[in-house]
Amino acid sequence: MISFRSVRHGYGNNISLKFQDWTLQQGEPWLLLGNSGSGKTTLLHILTGLLKPQQGEVLVKGTNLYQLRPKELDLFRGRNIGLILQRAHLIRSLTVLENLLLAQSFAGLPTDRQLAKATLASLHMEEKINRYPHQLSQGQLQRVSIARAVLHRPALLVADEPTSSLDDKNAEAVLQLLLCQARATAATLVVATHDQRVKTSFSNQYSLPDVAV
Ligand SMILES: Nc1ncnc2c1ncn2[C@@H]1O[C@H](COP(=O)(O)OP(=O)(O)OP(=O)(O)O)[C@@H](O)[C@H]1O
User: Which residues form the ABC transporter domain (predicted)?
Assistant: First the structure.
């Protein structure tokens, strides 16, 4: 279970974001909706351990993220939280496979080539494992980014605007991929978007109100 309680965060420029409490059960897919500037990125960063809120607590699998020491938090994130950003942020001088192995080692886990290869194969990327990032299409880069995020069966899988730059067909394919990967690993999935096309695929929705400035 993941929970978000009494969370507030401000940026010191009259912007104070107050988030409604939120409880997500293990394995549930959720959509996080909000217009530009409503606080989606802020909330995702708080939820994934990247930004300590000024108030409130975030529990992932019973662990209060912001009570961990920085090093413990890094390890906890690497093992339990998978993050998919709009851009893949791969290391350009490493192959697809090497990028995944590096992610394992950053998470403090033993490098496991077979697991990395099998995960890439499950995303139909087996023929690209020795390619470099610049040799891949945007859709393929996104698959690598999904593979890297699900590699260790994280309890929480978070995707920030995964479909906004894609056409209808690819947007639907990426969504199905995320839902399917989350189901396969019983991960709680959070997809943040302002893409109206995505709305119908999720019954659980957490909506952010517009921020009055
Ligand atoms: N580092 C910062 N310093 C000052 N204000 C910030 C900072 N980061 C975000 N904000 C402000 O906080 C509010 C929420 O920003 P946030 O990026 O979380 O929204 P968002 O919903 O993700 O927007 P978008 O969809 O446009 O990316 C905005 O008004 C933004 O200007």
Answer: 2-211
